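Shipment paperwork, digital attachment
Item: protein structure file
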Amino acid sequence: MKDTKLVDILKTLTTEELREFRKFVVSPYHKKRDVEDLFNALRPFHPNFEDEKLTNEYIYNKLFPGKKFGDKKSDSLIKTLSSDLFALCKEFLIQLEFEKNENYRRYFLLQQLRKRKLYSEHVKEAKPAKAYLEKESGNDFELIQKFYLSSSMVEYHIDAGEFAECYEFVIEQSEYLSAAALIGMLRFSSQQEAAEYGYNLKTRKNLTQAILSHLNVDALIDDLKANGSRYHAFIEINYIGHLINKSEMSKDLFYKMKKLLSDNHELLSERELYIFYSMLTAYGHKVFAGSAGKESENEVFELYSKMIELDAYKFSSNDYFQVGLFRGMLITARASGKLEWMKMLIDEKLKELHPNYIDNMKSYAMGQYYYGMGLYEKALESLIVLKSDYFLYKKDLKNLLFRIYYELGYIEESYSMLENMKKYLSNTDDLSDRIKN
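Attachment content:
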């Protein structure tokens, strides 16, 4: 019972969600077969479900006291009930997500009100939908939601014979879909770059690349700007992001994107700010690689600092802080001499990483911090306990250990680490050729 799909899904529910799921289970609306008793038998084992007595036999005896467990029929009955409860769990997860998305809920409500010819109620419920449609957005997911909402408006005005109003919503509906498609295509290049450069994956030719190769986006942006289009800033930011991933290294592109983000950050959602700042910091590392002077060292750090200031270092407040981004912030802060900021990052943000990474990253982070402070012995103590399972750690760890050995005068260990690094780079498939070079 402990290693079943049902238990796996129940483990993911919070205490509050489990309480809500109980209401879901007992509701006659959802019942196909009565699984309330099975849920009640499993509930005390939440959240870990690790108790040794959690077996099919134990659950059977709780459900059918006095009956003997052991034949194929009893085991089959437990599996059938578990399968039904598992299906109900999935319905509950759908409901959780549906409740979070007000716009899709509003779209389905408007559709039903129109189909039932409840027009006065449709007009009332359409007001908040129209307010949402007027909100500026360059988020491709939000634009798709707007596409659906505007389609319900189109159908309502057709029914009402209001063709002028209908055509305006037809225009808006087409704009939402066009903007979402173009923005999604322009963002594809960053995903391709991450796949090829970061994860050494081979990518295939695809429709998105083909369409982009035939578009004159520069002319489009000029036209949008001249006509005062609400999509101008969003398209331009995404286009510069596309060029960052497809063009030669250019400090001009870096500074142009930096200014666009600074001028338009109030227009962008938390998710968009995260995407674009992450993209620009990665580009900045490449543009300023090997540059001399404090100004160039600080360029990427300023972006990382802005991400923390704007709470734009995660997709959303509910997401984990990505370990690769945290690592990049650490190294850049140390290289820029911003050790106080670096310590703040460790003390305040480390806990927002996925729990599986926290212990490892703390050892790594303190190793970087102590190295920056010139406390090489303490840095070594922190790093020797690090488990370098995450592949980016391996080259980082070897790199930093070499530096520490050198600073401590451990020459044999320094040479040994260099040889170790060369063997690793020669044999690993985890890193792209560009990273190896």
